[in-house]
From TrEMBL:
One Pfam family cited in the UniProt record for this chain: Peptidase_M90
Protein name per UniProt: Zinc-dependent peptidase
GO cellular component, one term: cytosol
Phylogenetic classification of the source organism: Bacteria, Pseudomonadati, Pseudomonadota, Betaproteobacteria, Nitrosomonadales
Provenance organism: Nitrosomonas communis
PANTHER family documented for this protein: MTFA PEPTIDASE (PTHR30164), PROTEIN MTFA (PTHR30164:SF2)
GO molecular function annotation: aminopeptidase activity; metallopeptidase activity
InterPro entries, per the entry: MetalloPept_cat_dom_sf, MtfA_fam, MtfA_N
Superkingdom as given in the UniProt entry: Bacteria
């Protein structure tokens, strides 16, 4: 009964709070990795995006005025991750804060060993457990920086999925038909290989930030999985298989062979 009520409410929002057609088409055209979506996938993405816009607050910081097109640009990309899942994956938090450009992180945290760390650094995105997602609009709006599969929206929302287990550790809650041992083995092997490549001074096909931690590795791999899937399928086939099972998508099928290697 509850799921029927939820479905009715979501359909009501979709029908009564539509995204303007001109804005929708403009954003679709700008985000290149959406070009291969089928018609049913595009319709589902539009539904999720419409409801996401209803559920979440997107506020500007440092005087930034957030336009409707900006809201759609962020929301649409966030909903790509849960295209074949459900909006409930983004439950228990409300706000997205958008800065004009990079912002400064300045805080302390205590690690598992009880050691206190001070963080003071420029960032383009940040996700908080049960808190907001923070984004740099300059980075969101840069749809041309795709050499290493960079996408700040996908990165931060992948962290949100990862945190559904209570902490960001590189392993989001897997589906019942997935083997946690296979996930761990695939990601551990790929993470160690990337770290070794960096130690030798080799160039990676993904953002080197992936080597920071298993949590960042999952987020960076999620970026590349959507933005340059053929490269991930070729160079990290086991990771691609696990991400495909988790996101229930096969984005490499949307691309001509080798187009984004």
């Amino acid at each position: 009964m509850i799921w029927k009520l939820k479905k009715w409410w979501r359909n009501y929002i979709f029908q009564h709070e539509p995204i303007a057609e001109a804005i929708w088409q403009d954003v679709l055209a700008r985000v290149h990795f959406l070009q291969g979506l089928t018609q049913p996938e595009t319709l589902q993405l539009r539904q999720w995006t419409t409801i996401f816009l209803h559920d979440k607050k997107i506020n500007g910081a440092q005087g930034l005025i957030v336009t409707e097109e900006m809201r759609v640009m962020i929301s649409l990309q966030a909903c790509m991750l849960i295209l074949e899942l459900d909006l409930d994956y983004y439950r228990n938090w409300l706000e997205i804060i958008v800065y004009p450009g990079e912002f400064i992180l300045d805080y302390e945290y205590t690690d598992e060993m009880g050691i206190v760390h001070a963080v003071h650094m420029a960032a383009s995105g940040e996700s908080w457990l049960a808190g907001p997602v923070i984004l740099s609009w300059e980075d969101v709006n840069d749809t041309t920086n795709n050499k290493q599969g960079y996408n700040v929206v996908i990165h931060e929302f992948a962290h949100k999925l990862d945190m559904l287990n209570g902490t960001a550790n590189g392993c989001p809650p897997l589906h019942r038909n997935m083997d946690p041992r296979a996930w761990t083995a695939a990601f551990k092997q790929a993470f160690e290989a990337c770290c070794n490549q960096l130690d030798k001074g080799d160039e990676l096909v993904i953002d080197p930030y992936a080597a920071t931690s298993p949590a960042e590795f999952f987020a960076v791999m999620s970026e590349a999985f959507f933005v340059k899937p053929c490269a991930i399928q070729q160079y990290f086939p086991q990771v691609y298989q696990q991400l495909s099972a988790f996101y229930r998508q096969n984005p490499a099928m949307r691309w001509p062979t080798g187009v984004n290697l």
